[in-house]
Amino acid sequence: MKTFDLIIIGAGRGSNLAAKAAKLGKKVAIIEKDKLGGTCPNRGCVPSKLLIGYANKIREIKSSKKHYIKSFIDNIDVEKIFEDTNNYIDSIEDIYQNKFNENVTVYKGEASFVKNKIIKINDEEITAENIVISTGTRPAKPLIDSAWTSDDIFPLKEIPQSITIVGAGFIACELANFFDAIEVKTVQLVRGETLLENEDKDIQDIFKKEYTKNVDVRFNSSIKEAKKVNDYFQIELEDGTNIETQALLYAIGRVSNADTLSLENTDIQLTKRGFIKRDEFFETDVKGVYVVGDASGENMLQHAAAYEVNHLSKILLEDKIKPLKFKYMPHAVFSHPEIASVGLTEQKAKELNLNYVVSITNWKASAKAQSLKLDYPRTKFILNPYTYEILGCHLIGFESATIIHQVLAIMHIDNDIRHLKDMLYIHPALSEVLLPAAVNAVKVIEEYKKSQEV
Question: Can you give the pTM of this predicted structure?
Answer without folding.
Answer: 0.95
